[in-house]
TrEMBL record:
This is Aspartate racemase. It comes from Cardiobacterium valvarum F0432. InterPro entries: Asp/Glu/hydantoin_racemase (IPR015942), Asp/Glu_race (IPR001920), Asp_race (IPR004380). It comes from the Bacteria. Pfam families: Asp_Glu_race (PF01177). Keywords: Isomerase. The lineage of its organism: Bacteria, Pseudomonadati, Pseudomonadota, Gammaproteobacteria, Cardiobacteriales.
Amino acid sequence: MKTLGIIGGMGPQATIDLYQKITDHTAASRDQDHLHILIDSYPQIPDRTAHICGNGDDPLPYLVRSARRLEAAGAELLLMPCNAAHHYIRALRERTILPFLHIADCAIAALSTRCPPGSRVAVLATRGTRHSGIYRDALQQAGYQAVEPDEAQSAALMRCIYDGAKAGNTAAYVPLLADTVAAITADSLILACTELPLFLPWWQDSRPVIDSTDALARVAVAAAREAA
C-alpha cells in the first residue's frame, strides 16, 4: 500500500479530523491493517485566505517545504486538509514529484452519488476558497449550479470558522452557523472548509451535506489500498 503524506496544521483540529476519518474508513481488525501515514503539522504556514484576498504572506514556500519534508520521509501520495490551500496546488505539483489528491474533486465525486446534475449546491467556505473559484469552476464543469453565500452570509461563515472552530469555540458558534446556512437557498451543501465539519457533532441540515474532509479521507484510503 502507498504511504500517505498529510500537509497539516491548517488548522490542527482539521488535521486531526482528517486522520480520524482515514482511520474510521480503513477496514482493519488489528493495528497492522491500518495505513502508513506521515503528518507534517505545520501551523506556521501563513493564512491562505489572507494571501488570496491580497493582505497576507505567501504560503506557497511553506507548503513546498512541507511537501518536500514528506517526500524525503517516504510519502508516496500527498493530501491537504485545507480547501483554500488548493488554490496553490498547480504550483505545488510543479515543485514535487509526488501526486496530490484534490479535495474539491473528492467532494464533487461524493456529491455526484447523492445529488443529480443541475441541482443547486451551496459552497460553504472561507473567502479565500470562494475567491479562488476552485469549487465554482469544478461544479459548473460537473453540471451543477454553484450557489455562493452573499457578503453578510460569507462574513458570518468566516466568524464561525475563525472565531469559532479555529479558536476552539466551535460549540458557541453553532447557532450562528445554523441560522446562516438555513437562509441559503440550495438543494445541497458542500462543507468546503475543513473547519466546518467540526460543527457536525452539534449541527445538521435537512439537505444533503457533503463533508469535504470525509470525501478526501475516503478517496485517500482507496488510493492507498490500490497499490496493495
